[in-house]
């Protein structure tokens, strides 16, 4: 049995109509105006239609910064470097930034701190002196996460394992300290059930 394929006519939109022919906006030019060129820098959506020859001439003479002072040119250049989005200086101590965030977003601005570098200062406040020593023994820097503790522990165990360091008393002492530090930090994380 043969399938019947219906013929679909390709309809064109009104702006795709081939019958329309725009004449070039340059004086005494009767060629087709296919290429758009803005009429002014203040209204970039209003444009001329030129042929290829005249659009090239127009583009060579186009100067966005014409009739601007040096300060205005610098202002526009600086604005373009930040994609014309407003910025404001924050600077100073990280507590200033948190105060601003608290004022703008209220108490729920924790999503800013998830991967921020200043998270370590907040996280270390939650640790006792013994726990801080354990972090040093495991060579862990902030931000402190459970995954970081586990991966650091695995690396150190491989390095100081008794099978690798046979008859080395220092390695035995080190592996005991690493195990004790790891247990202490795991206990800390299981009690809190939160990211530090």
Describe the structure.
This protein has 3 domains: 17-81; 88-117, no CATH class; 127-192, DnaJ domain (Helix Hairpins, Orthogonal Bundle), CATH 1.10.287.110. The chain is 45% helix and 4% strand. The chain is built from 7 helices and 2 strands. It has a two-stranded antiparallel ribbon with strand order 1-2. It starts with 34 loop residues before the first strand and ends with a helix. 11% of the residues are buried. Mean pLDDT is 77; it is low at 112-122.
Short description:
The chain is mainly α. It is built from seven helices and two strands; from the N terminus they run ββααααααα.
Within CATH, the superfamily of the largest domain carries the name DnaJ domain
Principal-axis shape: elongated
Strand-pairing-aware structural class: mainly alpha
- Range of helix content: 40-55%
Beta-strand percentage range = under 5%
Largest sheet: 2 strands, antiparallel
Task: Tell me the distance between the termini.
Answer: 70 Å
